[in-house]
Design a protein that fits this description.
- The structure is a single chain.
- The protein is of the alpha+beta class.
- Helices cover about 35% and strands about 35% of the residues.
- It is built from five helices and seven strands.
- It has a seven-stranded mixed beta sheet with strand order 1-2-3-4-5-7-6.
- Helix 4 links the parallel strand 4 and strand 5.
- The longest helix has 22 residues.
- It starts with a strand and ends with a strand.
């Protein structure tokens, strides 16, 4: 697995990322019973203009297996804004490798923050396994709850 920053100005790369995002988030939408997850509403142009920093995990044939996006919203606090894995690469350690990459790359951070749908049990298990602790639950629309997790940084 090779993890590198994704160039949002490269047309083909954005197309691959957009396709991956739709495959991954359609599954989450099914799990949590809510089809209006923001990444599913996003166009390629919206993705290209995102202020987030994206990292992609590629296999030996350069196929995009998964991606993570981050944003430093306040000094010392990094939010993992998106985590997506191609369903064909589930259970191969892609999401865990992306998380570990982020922890290493941003090792100066005091805190990592991530949210996911409460009913997205694979994501909840992933974040818990990687040291995140649940800090809150918010109902975003009737019947759909988001869980927020924090993880202390390496400081």
């Amino acid at each position: 697995m090779n993890i590198t920053r994704i160039d949002l100005q490269d047309e083909m790369t954005v197309g691959d990322l957009w396709s991956l995002q739709h495959k991954a988030y359609r599954l989450e939408a099914e799990l949590i019973g809510f089809n209006e997850i923001p990444p599913l509403m996003e166009t390629r142009d919206m993705l290209r203009q995102s202020p987030e920093i994206f990292y992609g995990c590629h296999d030996h044939a350069s196929e995009l297996m998964g991606a993570v996006a981050v944003e430093e919203e306040s000094p010392g606090k990094l939010t993992i804004t998106r985590m997506m894995v191609n369903p064909g690469h589930f259970r191969k350690g892609v999401a865990g490798a992306l998380l570990e990459y982020v922890f290493e790359k941003y090792s100066e951070m005091e805190q990592f923050i991530v949210s996911t749908g409460k009913l997205n049990l694979p994501a909840v298990a992933l974040y818990t396994k990687h040291g995140f602790v649940q800090v809150g639950v918010e109902e975003v629309v009737p019947g759909v709850e988001l869980v927020e997790f924090y993880r202390r940084g390496h400081l």
